[in-house]
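Quick illustration, no need to memorize.
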Amino acid sequence: MWPFTSAAPPSPQPAVATDIIVPLSEEDDTQINRDLLLNLMLRFDAVLDPRKLRESLDKLLARPDWKKLGARLRKNSAGKLEYHIPDHFDENRPAYTYTQLRFDIRIRDHPVASKIPNGFSGDAPANLLNPNEFKELMRRKEGSPSHIDDYLTQDRPQLGLHVTSFTDATLVCISWPHTFWDAMGRREFLLAWTATLAGQEDKVLPLNGFDASPLTGFCDNPKEEYKLLPKRLSIPQMIVFGLRLWFESFWWTQEETRVVCIPASYIQQTKAQAVVELKEAAAAAGQPTEGIFLSDGDILSAWGTKLLTKHIPIGQKQTICILNAFGWRELLAPDILPRSKAYLANASSAVFTYLRGNDVASHPISYSAGLVRQSLQELGTRAQLEASVKLNREAMRATGHPPLYGDATMQLIVVSNWSKAKFFEMDFSPAIVPGTPSAKGGEPVGKPSYIQVCGISNGFSLRNAFQVSGKDRDGNYWLSVTLRKQVWDSINEAWESKTAE
């Protein structure tokens, strides 16, 4: 997951004298964020009016503070990224790129879009599709950015909107570089857009940090030492770890991203059983059982770890490190990131959980889930956040890369869970065209029935990453999982044989 190469510097784009120049925060301007471009697709089983979508977005980005989202990305003489915010937007310098496709057919009659799910009725996890099959419906074919340099060398907005319309459904797709925001920043944007669409502009929050990051200096004087500091990898260990990643990608060149749905019934049953097992283990050890708790996210992290370690070679004593993306907004409220303002940037890092290969193999999911919960409780405090971010920033300033914790031969598993962003609950009902049908039958619904993400990574691999898009209206979880192709072949064979039993 960590890049070890950097691209050649792009040709600079001339500055516009009337632009407002704002530096990116240290959490935005990282090599990993530079190297990752993302596209998010929301499927609606309703006909949405593209004109209403555009008018509401135009109105939102015309607000004095929200126009920051129309900033162009530039690199200064020190090599740092900065925003150049136009004084105003027009046809020559729009706030966002907009493209549209229209098909005068039902979505089920389109050769590609007909494969896009709009629900799930199975009772076990299922590997459904490759999300890259739908890239042609998520962005325009020609001229779409594929590298951060495409933003730096052109006067291109960072935010893109692509709408694909059918006679009974609509696909709304947004694109951005990861330097722009994280999942919770994207949530703030969608909440403000839908509020504007509904004529509820009083619900649009003012921006936090229009011209300066509120995160500057918050971790300069941590009250505690970071608990994982003794596990920090040395430079030789980092080299060994990087060489192992390189060997993995060199020896097993093919990787594949698949959309997996985990049904609500499976999550509920697995979590209930896991809590029972943890309470039984605590009672047997003479420990209190009150307050034992697991979240759906704990179960998803443990489930992904169990799945992967069943299908790749893992040494019995080999360390398995689960890296859970961890958002800061709750911990930094109300003083630094108050809930009364929208923070549209990256404010997240990682919480690490460590296990041994034989322990994952020999214990039920409850074991790994319990350790994930324990690490979140121990490391997910304000004091530990300040301590870890201080170390992150020092390492990034010195080397350009974040520190790692564990050992040089550990197996890294990355989990990025967007469930708290509640993308499936975003309500675009005011844009529904009256009198039009729904692909699901009945009254059209203005909330997404399916969400997926596609990423373009440059310089590093997304292998062994589990990205959770969220929980749909039926309680099913949707994931994008990137693994070796051979690992997917093994998983598919195991799942198909189990289904056939």
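The first helix runs from residue 31 to 34.
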